[in-house]
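Hello,

Our lab assistant flagged a job as stuck in the queue for most of the afternoon. It eventually completed. Since we weren't sure the result was trustworthy after the delay, we are filing this so someone can double-check. Below is the sequence as submitted and the structure that was eventually returned. Let us know if re-running is recommended.
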Amino acid sequence: MDPPAGSRPKIQSDTTDTNDTIDTTDTIQQDSMIEPPMRIDAVEIRHYRLPLDPPFLAAWDPRPRTGHTVTLVRVCAGDYEGVGSGDAMLGFAGHEHLFVGHDPFDIERHVRILDNLQFMYGRMWPLEVALWDLMGKLSGQPLWRLLGGRSAHVPLYASCGERRPVAARAESARQLKAMGFPALKIRFHAPDPREDLAVVRAVRDAIGDDMHILVDANQGWQMPWDTGPTWDFKTALWVADALAELGVYWLEEPLDRRDYRGLAELRRRARVRIAGGEGNRDFAEQREYLRHDSLDVYQADVVWSTGVLRARQLAHEVQARGCIYSPHTWGDGLVLLANLHVCAAVSTAPFVEFPFDPPGWTPERRDFILPKPIVPDEGKLARVTLSDAPGLGVAIDWAALERWRFDRGTM
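-- returned structure --
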């Protein structure tokens, strides 16, 4: 008797006629053809250093920078490799076995281990970036699409890195405006903030009111050898009020990075947006900013602060509050790319940092580890379009980099 229409056929018992049994040979053959997951074969750390002559005079560093040091993390799985860059990965040597032999797609596990290592040693997020790059290459998808795929286009602002005399910075601002940048960032670090305010005033006169000015006070953290005084709350509020009169879009890191209450009170009283959080190591610190409503603009760097997985989480939480997620991107070309991919995937920021302050800081200097430097789209209004190439979209020429090989990743 035939089964009722729409019912599921039952697998026959051993006593059923062999002519009526279900042939599972094809299914077994298909299952045997499914490849096991790719496993991580190796994790390598390499350091490179590009001499800088003339030196780069970073506003946040009292010492002229005579070299640009980059640490690359390489994760191999079969014929595929993923790369990341950032901090020197101090303390990682000897822990490669925690990743070798594991599925690169087991990212929640990997992030937990990296967080444990970070607690014991230093920042380990360059390895997470390398794992995401590897996952993208294994799946044939760009990272920005794997993470959310909001848009391949990222709007940019020009982030200056040096403190320059008034006339020189005003002329630089005119040139950046002519290049199509909708905003530029000016660095503070003078002993007397009135000197830096004079630069902002001259830049505003030079560019008019149709270009945004951002200011980085560089008060959130200091280089190891910088023992100079930092601003107190009243100084920060006074500067914020002065910048508001000049139409500044945001004031970045006006207080210590761990002063959550002070930043919250400054945000409440200031007439300019307050930005920060670029380098806070622990994700709990970013949650403290959220808990205290400390910031208008959250700048946690993917390789310096959160990693990729948590960057996406933070961006969603920040934007759900009506705030801006626009991360810090200073470093090298892979650092910039990692942050751009996360922003392309999830950020609604009006613009994202593009480190650019020629002649001291050019794409060629910044991106020397890449086959070619990252530049804004030709003929477009200061934006970069990420490619459909898998992962971060770049392949490192290891042989070409050998000339810059260095024995350590510290400055």
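-- support follow-up --
The delay was a queue issue, not a problem with the job. The result is valid. The longest strand covers residues 42-56. Residues 42-141 form a domain with the Enolase-like; domain 1 fold (CATH 3.30.390.10).
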